[in-house]
Amino acid sequence: MITLDLTLPDTRYPIHIGRHLLEQVELLLPHLPLPKVAIVSNETVAPLYLSRLQAALEAKGVQCLSVVLPDGEQHKDWATLNLIFDALLANRCERNTTLLALGGGVIGDMTGFAAACYQRGAPFIQIPTTLLAQVDSSVGGKTAINHPQGKNMVGAFYQPRAVVADMSLLDTLPDRELSAGLAEVIKYGLIGDAGFISWLENNMAALRARDSEALQYAVKRSCEMKAAIVGEDEKEHGVRALLNLGHTFGHAIETGQGYGSWLHGEAVAVGMMLATAASAELGWLARDEVERVRRLLVAAGLPTRAPRMPLSRWLELMSHDKKVSAGAIRYVLLKSLGQGVIHANLADTLLQKILDEND
Predict the structure, then answer these.
(1) Active-site residue flag, 308
(2) Could you report the per-residue pLDDT of 332-353, keeping only the tens digit for each?
């Protein structure tokens, strides 16, 4: 097991990475103010892992409540969030009842947001079960639900007490979900580590074959980079925005095509392709570098072509992005492979050109 620490001005918490950690509840016990937890999961993950976690906790004298939600991005809304509150209130859970998020990014986001709101703040712990959640959404304290007009538009910055990334839980992850997680892994190389890009190119086959050593390194390196960035800029006033490479375009795809029709990582992959193409149009990348990024995304099993939408629809959707500042859409682009940069307001002609060439 590898343990990283995320250090912030007001808190510090561990990120444990390894295999067969689910039932090592000794990792959780120090972070429980009361011997009572609410395990929040979904209809896909719960049959696989909830009973194992609950049995291990109950063996240590921890009272467990389980809350099983419907699965899918389309359920990341107020109605589903209220199911968590209903269960907490029906079981007379106090403010110090710890919420455990056992699932992917949707479960982690909703459980964290519920914890931030319940009695004005309850503790929670992330136990991510997808690669995307292990390398990205479980770390850093972003919690939210979606709105029909924009993804993750209603939420809070609220940090977990701990993150436990059990690599063995990836054994049951569908191939499509694994590829979606690899999009976020690739993102870290593109924004801040050119050497990691080369490592990914050399090890992509091993990652997709679920080689344990390769996956653990990819998760470790991704979490190291995210922890360093979040530690510097918790509330996304500056450098943390770089973590959104591909997300302005990607969130537009998810919202415009209907939540759940594209996986988040798939939409981000296309967004990174468009951001890379825009960077080349600005003269920052060579055409062979754009092709290098495309090859890496394809090797990861990810799409690189955007769905057809008129430019006016893209602009409408992206105008709701959380990075909009003073009316300007801010994009994360690449000054070079391994160096992300924030850039405001791409010209409509440039956007139309990269969309036409991507078609």
Answers:
(1) no
(2) 999 999 999 999 889 999 999 9
CA distance 127 to 134: 8
Q: Which residue(s) pair with 100 in the sheet?
A: 39, 125
Query: Quick one: pLDDT at residue 247?
Result: 94
- Does residue 142 have an active-site annotation? yes
What kind and span of H or E run contains 162? none
Spatial CA neighbour of 231 closest among 28, 15, 1, 30: 15
pLDDT averaged over every residue in the chain:
95
Give the per-residue pLDDT at 324.
75
Contacts of 171 (CB under 8 A, 6+ apart): 210
- The answer to whether 320 is a known catalytic residue is no
Catalytic residue among 161, 221, 247, 330: 247
3-state secondary structure of 340: strand
- Say whether 150 sits in a helix, a strand or coil: strand
| Residue 235 annotated to the active site | no
Residue type at 113 in one-letter notation: F
Q: Tell me whether residue 226 is one of the annotated catalytic residues.
A: yes
Known catalytic residue: 237? no
CA distances to 127, 184, 302 from 102, rounded to whole Å, are 5, 20, 25
Of 92, 120, 237, 308, which is the active-site residue?
120
Catalytic residue among 226, 323, 330, 343: 226
Distance CA 208, CA 119 (A): 42
CA triplet 209, 213, 215: central angle to 5 degrees?
Answer: 60
Residues 16, 345: Cα–Cα separation, whole Å: 39
pLDDT tens digits, residue range 153-196? Answer: 899 999 999 999 999 999 999 999 999 999 999 999 999 999 99
Alpha-carbon 295 to chain mean position: 23
- Say which of 16, 36, 142, 187 is annotated catalytic: 142
Query: Catalytic one among 73, 236, 254, 266?
Result: 236
DSSP 357: H
Cβ neighbourhood burial of 78 (10 Å; 0-12, 13-18, 19+): exposed
Instruction: Provide the residue count of the chain.
Output: 359
46-67 confidence digits (pLDDT tens): 999 999 999 999 999 999 999 9
Select which of 73, 177, 184, 281 is catalytic: 184
The one catalytic residue in 240, 323, 330, 343 is 240
251 catalytic residue (yes or no): yes
